[in-house]
Each structure stands twice: as structure tokens, then as C-alpha cells.
Amino acid sequence: MSKNGRPKVLLVKHWIDIHDRGLRLIASRCRDAGFEVVYASYSQPEEVVKMAIQEDVDVIGMSFFTSAYEAHLPRVMEGLKKNKLNHVMVVLGGVIPDEDHEMLKKQGVRAIFGAGSDVNQFIELVKTEVPLQKK
Amino acid sequence: MFDEKTLVEAKKLQEQWKEAINKIYQGKDFAAKTNSGIPLKPVYTPLDIQDIDYAKDIAMPGSYPYIRSNYPIHYQYQPWVNQPVHGYGLPEHTKERMDALTKAGMEGYFGARSYNLVWDYPGYFGIDPDEPDAEGYIGKDGVSCNTLDDFARMLDGLDIAKNNIILINGDTLPMFALYIAYAENRGVLRGNLRGNTMNWVFTAWYAPNFMWETEDALKLATENIHFCVKNIPRWNHTNIQGHAISETGADAIHQMGFCLGTARAVADSCKAAGLNPDDFLTGIGFQIAQCNDFFEYICMFRAWRKLWARITRERYGATKPAAMHLRTHTNTSCFELVKQQPLNNIIRSAYHALGAALSGTTAMQIPAYDEPIGIPTEESAILTLRIQQILVHETGITRVGDPLAGSYYVEWLTKRMEEEGEKILKEIDDAGGFVKAHKAGVLATVLRRGCDQWRDEIDKGKRIVVGWNKYQTEEALKVKAFRPDPEVARISIERTKEYKKRRDQAKTDAALNGVVEACKKLKAGEYGHVMPACIEAAKAHATAGEISKALRKVMRWGPEYNVMLKF
After folding, report:
1. I need a labelling partner for B199 at 20 to 30 A (CA). Which of A59, B270, B448, B459 fits?
2. Mean pLDDT in residue range B194-218
3. Structural domains present in chain A
4. Separation of alpha carbons B188 and B195, rounded Å
């Protein structure tokens, strides 16, 4: 939770992933819900962890148009663990086949919001769970 | 359009109609709006188009202002070109898809086919597979192809002097140079090549957030055009990407207005570089998204042809009809295809394609119904071709040119779209021109707003999407995502490393240095050096990524990827 009591959300995608319509929508909906939002692109997954530390965020939302999460997510999860940021909620969005959801949740992904998801569900999830996070 | 008697009668009949609806529906208001927000009446009459001058505003197909078609006879002679986008995995995987589409009857003009090849993200941005930034993206949403050998794996055996090869990637020059080098190594003269490069200097910016910096991008694009005009006059060098603008949030009028604004900026630059408009305009095309709101997009298309004809003739002094023609490649809507009940997407795309066909498009790509789930399978890719084939061979719509012309509604809305397009061009001029307006974020703001508004309307139930916010079902998704061979990345990386090992490094380095030196000349406004230098580098076995990086030593690449926005 940021200093002013608002949940703080880091929204990222890899810089070469040009499909940003969904992530931008989430950004404006988070802002409308009163969250603090940091929107950024990364080159190496470790940068996501670095940004999460630097910005002291409660939630990381990663967007993928292709299955690059197979390569990137383990590196982000490991970085979070190494830096004792287990409390940070990680959610994914984009084009993510249903059959991959279980594998991703096993790695620690809290929820997956693919095409056509209800944005409010994400907002509610953050509102409910972020205040309970123990740092 | 009408004589006095007809108008008097029309007025009388309209009054009677008004009385009738007041009586039957108790004065209920039936006014609506197009998806772009243009107010609509429930019905149109001769009164709405009485100011249109048939000879001046509409005329015959194939004559100025080309509102009806570029050609006097169009689909009756040659239907539109099937141009399905394809590319995934290794070059040989893409070749399999090319062959499958060929076998399925993909056709172009006069027996030639158009292979609309899309690169993966690394290829799109000039990153080789062996670079760290490529990890996770190799061969996923496009082909991994960055060397002469890769082009050979994909295109050997194909008659490239007859068929069109379309290179869909972001950093145009290096990949084009590789293709030309490959062709010449095969003994095909560059002047005999046919196809398209994207050269989409501006449009790439509002979709993602990364590309060549504004002024340098324009110089690189102009360099490509300069090269084509002098060396490959038939090549379609520039594709103004309306589809990307649409997918990023533009409605019909903004798609058209922003594209025309982009095209003017490119053409201004070409003219300033001393090129003859009759020569360079013939290579500029528009990739147009055909979306929901059936009639609005048809009218947009007709108005777009007219506006472009006027711009090319009046602003640039074009004299050849071909230089006034709006060359179009339709890419039917993707953002309106949804994951829920995905088979419905085939129906949606068929309507979009019908709209494009009734608009008189010259080429067509239809997204596969499973794209909200993953990369198209061979089966779903071929289905998109079947939509086009059914339209051509079964519906009878190719028998008569511009069949909707003369409809009171269509002609009225076409005129309105023309006015709206002019309004947007004026807004761009008022903002100091396209480059300035773009840099100030004027265009991006419109797109973001469009995107948010579209989604708001769906979430609030004001816009119905079948299966998503109405008529939902609880059924689990039966469609499985297609996955390219997991070995692709490893093989692609190994091949790149091998390629670099096998070459005469000193020769490659010298050629890459030649690219850097040529860029310095381009930076100073001197055209005609960079493309030849890129081709030399490609022939000296530089990879696409290496040539891209040589360009970046001089030309500004940006804004930086790690720009952080906070709000």
C-alpha cells in the first residue's frame, strides 16, 4: 500500500510487445479506481523486479500477446522471492491459452485476465487483497 | 441529382411519413448515431443528397474522383487479391503455411499470388534471435527470419519475379535489403521484384511506444521510397497502417483522417527530396480496417478514395491516374473478435469482409476466429480464405461495380465522411502539421480515448457483443491454442550464430561501416546511399539485426523503451 493508503500497481509489458490496448485500459481503470499506477516497458524480466522495489508496489500486472511468459515469468517470480517480495501480487493478462492457466498459477500467479475479462474483477481483487498483504 | 418535381414530391412524402410515425409511435425519437458518432435519421430520401452533383462528385468507376472504384471494371475482371497474413516458427514452417494457402486456392492478380509474410517481434524490431531481448518471442507471432539462408529456406523454389512478396516488419530497410540481396544472389534482378514493404514510419508510434524518432524515421522512409522509385518502380514501398490505428482505438473517421495525414507527411517529404509525385505516389498504399458499423465503413472507404484523389491531384499535382488511386489492402477488424464463443468470430469477419468487398477494396486479409486465443491454426487460417472465396464465387456481389452507389443513405453518409475527413486534416494542419501534432500527442490522445470509450460502452451494456455481454454461455472453451514447435528458438539462435561464424568477418564489418557512413549522408538530407549500403551489408552476410543496429548508430531510435508513466 502506498503512503497515502492507495494500492499501487505496476503494469508492464516487454518493449517489443506492441499490443498494448488491454494494458492501457487496465491502467486507466486502475486510475479511475483511485489506485496509483506505474506503467512501463521492460527489456529484461529482472527490470520488473527492480521497478517493483523502487516503486514499492503492491501488485504487478504483466501483459503478454504471445507465450513469452514461459520465459519471463520464472525470472520475475525468482527475483521477487530473492528480494523477499512474496507479498506482491502478480497477475497476468493478454492472449493466454486456458490450458496454461494452471501452470502459471502454480508458479505463483494470483489471477489471469485474458481477452474479454471483467476489469472490475481485477479492481475488486486488488481492493480486497492488497490491504491484507503482510510485508 | 434530382429535378424540381421529384424534390417537391419527396418533401411531401417525407411530411406524410413524419405524420405517420408521430401517430403510430407517439413521437418516439428514433434518431441514432454511427459508431463514429455521426447523428443519423431513421431513413434517407432524395432531399438528403440533392446537393450532390453526380458528374462531379460521383461519376463513373475508374474516373476522377474515383469514389466508386479505381478501375472502370473491377471485380468483374479481377476480384480483390487474397492476402492472408501468415508467418510463424522457422522459415520452413512458414513455407508450409504458404504452400497450404496456395493449395487452398489463394489468388492474386493474373495468376500471381501475394505472400503476406509477417515477422516475429524480434524481426519486427531488428533484434536477432541470439540477442537477450528476443527471448520468449522467437517465431511466436511471426516467422523468425534474419539471414539470407532464412530467406532461402522460405522462398527457394518460388517464382519471386512473378509472385508478390510482402514483408511485414517494423524496421523496413534492413529486412528489405536482405530480401533484395537474396533475390539477386538467386539471379533475379531487383527491378523485377514485386511486393510490399511497410515503411510505416508514423503509424508504428501510436500503436506501440517505440520506433525511430520522428524526423529520422521520415528520412529513412523517404530513403526507401527514393530507392524504390529509382530501382524497383513497381514495388509498393509504403503501407499506411490504418488497421493499426483502428486497433489502437480510432473510429472510422479518425482512421481515415489520421491515415491521410500520415500519407501527406510522407508525400511532402518525398516531394522535398526531389521525387516526382507521379512516380512515388503509385507505391503508397493504405491498409484499411473494416469494422462493425457496416455502412459507416463502406462510406468511409468511398470517401477515402475521393479525398486521396483530390489530395494527390491538388496538393501534389499528380497527373497519372495510378498516382491518384487509393491502393488498398483491407485488414478486417481484429479488436471486435472476442474469446467468448469464438466461432462467432467467423460470422463477424464475414460481415466485415462483405463490407470491404462492397467498398471495392483491392486486397484482403481476414483474421482467424481463434486469434483471441492464440496464433491461427492451419485450419483457421484457411477458413479466412474460404470467407473470401465464398464472397467471390457464391454471393454474386462481384457482378456489378459499386453496387451501393445511389443509395440515399450511402451517398449522404459518404459525403458526411468526406467532410469529417477534411475536418480532421484541418485539425492536423491547425496543430502545426502532422509531425508536430504527432509529437505533441494529439493523435495518441484521440486513440486512447476511443479505446476506453469502446470498452466502457461494452461494460455498461450500451454496446452489445454477442456471447460477451449478452447471450453468454457457461460452456468451457473448446478451441485449443496453436503452438509453434518449441524447438524453434533454439534452432533459430544456433543458425544465427553459425551464420556469423561462417562469414568473412572483416568484409561484414566493412559493409556495416558503409551503412553507418551512408546514414551520416542521409542525416544531412542526402538520399540514395543507405539502401544500397544495406544491400551490400546483407550480401556480406550481415544479419537483419546487425544492419538495424548500424542504422541506429546514426539515426535516432526512440523514445527509450523504459519510459515510465505514472498516474
Report:
1. B448
2. 76
3. 8-117 (3.40.50.280)
4. 14
